[in-house]
Structure formats: C-alpha cells, structure tokens
Design a protein that fits this description.
Elements lengths: L8 E5 L3 H11 L6 E6 L2 H7 L6 E5 L5 H8 L4 E4 L6 H11 L2 E4 L4 H4 L3 H4 L8 H6 L3 E3 L8 H9 L6 E14 L8 H9 L3 E4 L2 E4 L7 E5 L2 E7 L4 H8 L2 E9 L1 H12 L10 H10 L2 E14 L3 E7 L3 H7 L7 H14 L7 E3 L6 H14 L4 E5 L1
Parallel strand pairs: 1-2, 1-4, 2-3, 4-5, 5-6, 6-15, 7-12
Antiparallel strand pairs: 7-13, 8-9, 10-11, 11-12, 13-14, 14-16
Helix pairs in contact: 1-14, 3-4, 8-15, 14-15
C-alpha cells in the first residue's frame, strides 16, 4: 500500500516558540496553501507569530474538543505544537475531521509519579482508530523525542542482538543570566516525574538526577545524569532490547537539577523573538547549543550516532528570534511533516516504528533544510 497525501491545509495548535519556527518553515512549501494557527492566548501569539498570505492566527481553546472541531473542518493535517496534555483532545478531533495528526511529545499521565502512567504512551491507544479511518498519526516528532528515536532505530540496524540503547544529550548555555529555552510548564512536568528506565526487560523508575556518569560526546567528555526521556517509553516496544536509559548533561541540566533540589518556583518564561533578538544584540547570551548521542550496544558490536545542532549565534543569523531548542525542534517537526506521504501504512507511529527508507528520508530532509546540522557515526 502506498499512501499519497498532499497537505494543502494545516491546522497548527499552539503559537509559541516552536510553533513560530514550524509555521515559517512550512509556509515556504509550495504545496501548502494554508497554515491556520490557533491559541487561547492571543496576546502571547502576537509576540511569536507572523501572519501573512498563508499564516493566520485565530482563537481556540485546545482543552475544548467542541471548540477545536469548529476549526478543524477541511484540514489535511493537525499538528499539536502546544502542550502534550492536549494530545488526546486533538487526536479525537483529527479522527472526526478525517485529518492526519502529528505531535511533539507524550503526556504520560501528566508526567505522573506512577510507573503505570509513565510507561503507557497515551497516543498509541488510538492506533486502531486511525488505521480504520485510513489516517496517519505521527507522534513524538520533535528533536528529542523525535530525531533521537530515528537515530536509535538507525543505530540498532545490523548489530545483532541488542543489549542496551543509551540516550544521552547535552544542553549548554553561557549567558549573563539563565534563559529558558523550553516552557516553564514543561520544565516543571519533567522535573517532577521520576525518570523512566527499561532494565532487564522491565520498565522501572529511577532517581531524579541520579546515576551520574561521564559520557563521551563529540565535544568531549561530560557528566550526565538521569532525566525523564519519552523515548524510553516507546523504544522497547519497537526495537528488541533488554535495556534503555536516558540521561542529560550540560549547564541547563545543572540549572534544572538546582531548581528540583531547591524546589524553586519558576517565574521566567521563554523569551519571545523580539526579546531573543535583543538578548543576542546586547551579548546577554554568549552561546547555547544542543546535541544528542544515541548508542546501541550489542553482544559483539556497538554503534553510536550523534546529532549536533547549530549554536544559537548561527541560528539567529538564519532564523532571528529562535533559540537553540525551538529551532531544531521546529525543523524536526517540519521534516516529519514533509515526509509523511512516504509512510506506507495507517495508524499511530512513533519515529522508530517507521521503515528504514522513511527514517532515512526524514533525516535527509532535516539535513537538507539546514546543512549545518551534523550527524556523526562511530562504531
């Protein structure tokens, strides 16, 4: 079966930093005629979104299925670029509207502290419904999760029996004062949830910021520690392995650990594009970058793939106002969107569930969209 989908009209739920990048990238595509962005915060939307002949911004409450339904008629794809707590609402609306679906991350019971919630990916329970309606739902399509899942599947090819998959990422920032690159709500959710790990064929919970280790990244050896990673909840379902773990390091992880240990209240927010341009102009942010390494370890072989994304200085030369997380995340979402017509089956799929040809196509697309993104391999 070959699914041929032409996206002429896209409904984008969310109008924040990531949605700003996604809308601008997709508006450049000739086969996309309309991107309707909806939000319940019109004042905030004006700071992030730029309307033009393709992009419009309208009010809608993502917590209301009824409200979303009014906006969803006639759209080919609905992308949730807002908070993951709206995933199920938007999936239900997509099914009713006959639209394909895409999101960036799972909600997992609101990042509950219970194992049964954290290991159960809520989007997957809609697989049969999307399959029945001949629709595609791509889930967890940001940079991590998203590109990280693709690299995990790629690293696991051809190494035989897989003993362990390691997800390791680095977030570095040097600035006069801490600048949040992701939403405070998301920070709180992830910090409060105990990290999920898969050990000896079983899901378990680990200690927040525990199990420190020194890991070899393309930029050198750095300390990493337990952090909640969505990838752990899906990778064992599609790649046969006995162990999966996720750890993060860098100055932003050190800041997150301090917030967690001191139980600090987060009062900051993601700088809008105007503020970010001003920070860069005044040199308040010296540099900031994100990279990830994925390692699959077999009984006899191992393979590591690393993705290095542009520094914030380069990002603001090519995409003024974006940050080192919103830019690669937006790129990833756009790349998945552009490659969805290559998917040869219906249903709900995280990136690692796609066939190898499609996975390679998505990776090739993101590198074509920004040739400064480097993907390195080591064996």
């Amino acid at each position: 079966m070959n699914i041929k989908i032409v996206f002429m009209r896209i409904l984008l739920v969310g109008t924040g930093a990531v949605a700003s990048v996604v809308s601008k990238l997709l508006a450049k595509e000739n086969d996309i005629s309309e991107i309707s962005c909806v939000s319940n915060d019109m004042k905030g939307a004006k700071k992030f979104m730029e309307e033009n002949e393709k992009i419009t911004v309208k009010y809608a409450d993502a917590s209301s299925i009824r409200d979303l339904k009014r906006h969803a008629r006639g759209f080919d794809l609905i992308i949730n670029a807002s908070r993951p707590k709206y995933n199920e609402n938007i999936m239900k609306v997509a099914l009713k509207a006959g639209a394909n679906y895409q999101d960036t991350t799972s909600y997992l019971g609101g990042f509950s502290k219970k194992l049964k919630d954290l290991k159960n990916v809520e989007q997957l329970k809609y697989h049969k419904k999307f399959e029945k309606e001949n629709l595609v739902a791509l889930i967890n399509t940001g940079v991590a999760p998203g590109i990280s899942n693709l690299l995990a599947a790629e690293a696991s090819e051809g190494i035989g029996d897989i003993y362990e998959i390691r997800i390791r990422f680095l977030e570095e920032q040097k600035s006069e004062r801490p600048i949040f690159s992701w939403s405070p709500e998301g920070v709180i959710d992830e910090l409060s949830a105990p990290p999920l790990v898969y050990r000896n064929g079983r899901f378990m919970l680990a200690k927040n910021f525990g199990d420190e280790e020194i890991y070899e990244f393309p930029v050198g050896r750095r300390k990493v520690m337990n952090i909640f990673c969505d990838e752990v909840a899906t990778l064992p379902l599609y790649i046969k392995t006995r162990n999966v773990s996720g750890k993060g390091g860098g100055s932003e992880m050190d800041m997150a650990k301090k917030i967690y240990e001191e139980k600090k209240e987060i009062k900051s927010s993601i700088p809008d594009p105007g503020k970010m341009k001003n920070f860069m102009k005044k040199g308040i942010i010296e540099h900031a970058y994100f990279l990830l390494s994925i390692e699959s370890i077999g009984r006899e072989k191992r393979k590591k793939l690393s993705a290095i994304f542009p520094d914030i200085n380069k990002i603001n030369n090519i995409f003024p106002g974006a940050n080192h997380i919103s830019y690669p995340t937006g790129l990833a979402i756009a790349a998945f969107c552009k490659s969805i017509n290559k998917i040869d089956k219906y249903g709900v799929f995280p990136p690692e569930a796609l066939n190898r040809k499609t996975r390679k196509s998505i990776l090739a697309t993101i590198r074509k969209m920004d040739n400064s993104i480097v993907i390195k391999s080591s064996f």
